[in-house]
Specification:
Two copies of one chain form a homodimer. Chain A has about 230 residues and is mainly alpha-helical. The first copy, chain A, folds into two domains: about 15-55, no CATH class; about 60-230, Four Helix Bundle (Hemerythrin (Met), subunit A) (Up-down Bundle). Chain A contains nine helices and two strands. In chain A, helix 4 (about 75-95) packs antiparallel against helix 9 (about 195-215), helix 5 (about 100-110) packs antiparallel against helix 6 and helix 5 (about 100-110) packs antiparallel against helix 8. The radius of gyration of chain A is 21 Å and the shape is elongated. The interface between A and B is large, with 48 and 46 residues. Chain B binds a DNA duplex (21 and 21 nucleotides) through helix 2.
Chain lengths: ~230, ~230
DNA sequence: CCCAATTTGTTCGTATGTATC
DNA sequence: AGATACATACGAACAAATTGG
């Protein structure tokens, strides 16, 4: 950071770091691992290889933050309290701002679960896909903080849904109301009506929270893994 | 994680990990460093020492997440959009829930900046302390996610304020309105009036945002003038 | 206060894997 | 196909820190 290195730039080779700091290879390598674990650098072997500055990607940041909440006892209530605050804000923010291509992308997500699920596996996939709607929507926000937080919370919920099998037994009510709210929301976004978009999203959150609570409030006692990831 | 180890429990010694995985000492140590960088373990030398499972602490989680936003270039607008959504929710949530001791703790924070600052250094400290009010308030929330997010955003703002010297020149208006809003908020929290608490906090956020944006504009102008860059 | 045992921390030399030219 | 320039891995030795006798 103090050197002002940008993503893609190469750090000095192991050999030169050894010389520069007067330390042994093992020590230097441990230091590099510390940076690598944080997602700040990546290393490549071979000629032209080396250690390179890396822009921390969302997946890594979310996984690292997930480690923190592995030890906290998050409830469905906790997560939805935050979602109820953030999601309507996002909806209002994006109303009238989306291109036709973006609106079509959102429609495509909805269409992936507008038909009733035939079995438990499909039910699970639709559950995850309906949370993916929010991740896709957040992706369209110009606010990196809001975007990250909404995708992170949706991801946690997706994790809980999959690992705790909250999709089983099938909840037709949750499925139907979710599709209805998201369709209404899409219309409001297209119309550019921020107030309606905010209200619909707020109702959507409150409704989903109640239905999820009914499926049973459960804590996250698990690392975020690839399973159930939205990206 | 798969072994179900809890914070405080000891991992196998380096020697046994070397034997168990059939790898060299350096390789095992790099693996441990990866866990340590994430805040998941800590290691101690000496007899009775070793590598221990560690509950990821908030500071570490915030620092790791901060690495992500180091590359995302957040604006004052971005941060306040999230604060405007989350802080009123927290205020409403805590109304009527705080003990006398907690209310007094909040009063103590406010009192640290209710007298006008004498110089720039004091001005800076008061700026930071007024953000600390929100961190202390969030600490009292039973929602770990909401608590973390509010403390994280307040921390980012505190950093921006200090590194970009947003406290200079002194802004008497920001200082006075901040104290007034926080005092009103405290009264509402004591009265247990969630609606008023939410509204006061919302107003506080909107006001603070406007004033911060004005400070930012001042800083930008000063920067451009100092550099002699005109366009 | 010192010594011995235990465990992580560091060093150095060597060998291997991998990607590029 | 082979030389080269990197990171990766190994193993043995030594250093430092901590605890208990």
């Amino acid at each position: 950071m103090t050197e002002g290195w940008q993503p893609g730039e190469r750090l000095p080779s192991e050999a030169s770091l050894i010389a520069r700091f007067g330390m042994a290879k093992g020590t230097i390598r441990e230091a590099i691992r510390i940076l690598e674990a944080q997602g700040l650098v990546r290393s490549r072997t071979g000629p032209g290889g080396g250690v390179f500055v890396n822009e921390v990607v969302e997946e890594r940041a979310a996984a690292l933050l997930g480690n923190y909440f592995y030890f906290q006892k998050l409830t469905i209530d906790d997560i939805y309290q935050v979602r109820e605050a953030l999601e309507p804000e996002l909806a209002a923010n994006l109303a009238g701002q989306l291109s036709d291509a973006q609106l079509q992308a959102l429609e495509a997500v909805i269409s992936s679960y507008e038909a009733p699920a035939a079995n438990a596996e499909e039910e699970r996939d639709q559950h995850v896909a309906s949370l993916r709607f929010h991740a896709v929507l957040a992706e369209m926000s110009g606010n990196p903080l809001l975007r990250f937080l909404i995708r992170f919370t949706a991801n946690i919920l997706s994790e809980i849904t999959v690992t705790r099998r909250l999709y089983d037994p099938p909840n037709h009510e949750l499925w139907a109301s979710g599709v209805a709210y998201q369709s209404q929301l899409l219309a409001a976004l297209r119309d550019g009506d921020a107030t309606v978009a905010r209200d619909v999203m707020r109702q959507h959150m409150r409704s989903a929270k109640q239905l999820m609570l009914r499926q049973e409030a459960v804590v996250t006692q698990r690392f975020l893994t690839e399973k159930g990831k939205l990206w």
